[in-house]
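Hi team,

As requested, here is the filled-out complex form for the pyridoxal-5'-phosphate run. I kept the field names the same as last time so the parser does not choke. Let me know if anything looks off before we queue the next batch.

— J.
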Amino acid sequence: MFPIEKIRSEFPILKTKVYNKPYVYFDNAATTQKPMQVIRAITDYYEKENCNIHRGMHYLSVKATEAYEESRSVVRDFINADKSSEIIFTRGTTESINLVADSFGKKFISEGDEVIISVMEHHSNFVPWQQMCLERKAKLKFIPLLEDGSLDMKAFREMITEKTRLVAVSHISNVLGTVNPMKEIIVHAHQSDIPVLIDGAQAVAHLTVDVQDLDADFYCFSGHKMYAPMGIGILYGKEKWLEELPPYQMGGEMIKDVYFDHTVFNELPFKFEAGTPNVEGVMGLRAAINYMNDLGMDKIGAWQHELLLYATSKLNEIEGIKIFGTTANKICLISFLIHNIHPYDAGLIIDKMGIAVRTGHHCAEPLMEYLNIPGTIRASFTFYNTKEEIDRLVVAIEKAKEMLF
Ligand code: PLP
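And here is what came back:
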């Protein structure tokens, strides 16, 4: 039995009422709620350890530095990286991808080169590549989709040329829920010595991620989508790539020695961590990883899958509903439209029923253009959600339909 009641009691925000109704939170793909264990880790840090790290010789500074570096090892184990020095703390997925696009672009991309992404990418894994390619006069190519919202792998295989320098694809689509065949993509790209960056923003809260097993060159994710605070995230990079890339930002900590006319940069991972980092965020991230590990990623995955099956069958019973992303290999996230009702109108009524869903383009405007729709309503579930909450969503959708269609 999944200990759902105990888990729910650990997330204080789930006790909130909106419009006098118990709050149903189905916007987990945007950000997850935080358990007491994470909230406490942050307040504990400020109450007992707060100091700047890597700088002071005094007692608490050393303690805070140790806790920060231990957390790096916890992240390394979480994604099974080979070395802690391959784990860079960033502000989140967006910053991690910008770092690689900027540094990799400067070093390895020139006129006429090609970068491959897919049409399903979040703007965070789209705009940095688009802008870098525009600046460097390189070509950005897009893997198309099949009807069910999976990547057209045949098209992808035909896309690689001797000019391809990098492939950057999301592990899981934040709009369609599709889990992409990353291993297959990586094996194929590596046959031509092309590195692969994975946008793992939606994956880390749903799958056990093993960067060595994937053989990923870069893997990016955000803490706030996996029960940790906002403003903290990870860039994993294989040592050989991180050694080659130039630093992204300049300042304190990323230097070894500074002279009037030049600077010697620090070793990994500090070369990419300029300035005072988000230490409280790192403490929260460590607590979130421990929380997920204690629950067990297998158990989390099994409950999330049960919710997906339940919600899919219930939503499919609603007349006039169209679900986008129907492959079997998807996470518990459902994007849909009802007849020709605009998603914003439906979203407003669903909100008034006390249910938080996301409406709009979900930071994937090119995908909306590709699908020829204005946006979708997205319900994204996680392990603290229940089947009763899904039943309430069905009632709310029926109500929206009754009022708007
Ligand atoms: N990539 C995907 C697939 C996402 O879903 C998101 C956020 O929704 C991001 C990237 C950006 O994440 P962040 O805003 O935490 O940097």
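Two things worth flagging: The pocket of pyridoxal-5'-phosphate is lined by residues 92-94, 122, 124-125, 170, 174, 199, 201-202, 222, 224, 363 (CB under 6 Å). The CA atoms of residues 349 and 403 lie 9 Å apart.

Thanks,
J.
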